[in-house]
Amino acid sequence: xxxxxxxxxxxxxxxxxxxxxxxxxxxxxxxxxxxxxxxxxxxxxxxxxxxxxxxxxxxxxxxxxxxxxxxxxxxxxxxxxxxxxxxxxxxxxxxxxxxxxxxxxxxxxxxx
Length: 112
What we know:
Layout: E1 3-7, E2 10-12, E3 18-25, E4 34-39, E5 46-51, E6 57-59, E7 67-72, E8 77-82, E9 91-97, E10 106-110
Parallel strand pairs: 2-10
Antiparallel strand pairs: 1-3, 3-8, 4-5, 4-9, 5-6, 7-8, 9-10
């Protein structure tokens, strides 16, 4: 059974940082591309970043230079380091497999 559990969210002031983690199980994590997506209240899900098995990284334009995706294929964990956070980054963040399986998300709120 595929399982994805995101953690690390919270309330942070504008300009602050958070590091999200996504623990994966039930599939060969190191062999698949993994992504972060987010969904703000009342909005459609938005792709944020992808990291493929070859360690290539891709970012949505609004997070380039501020967010960094990484993975630990021994711990089967995907990470998202988020710096210089803005109020518009407020959303529930999910990790997602290439097939579109999305686990439980973690809330990120950026507010003063």
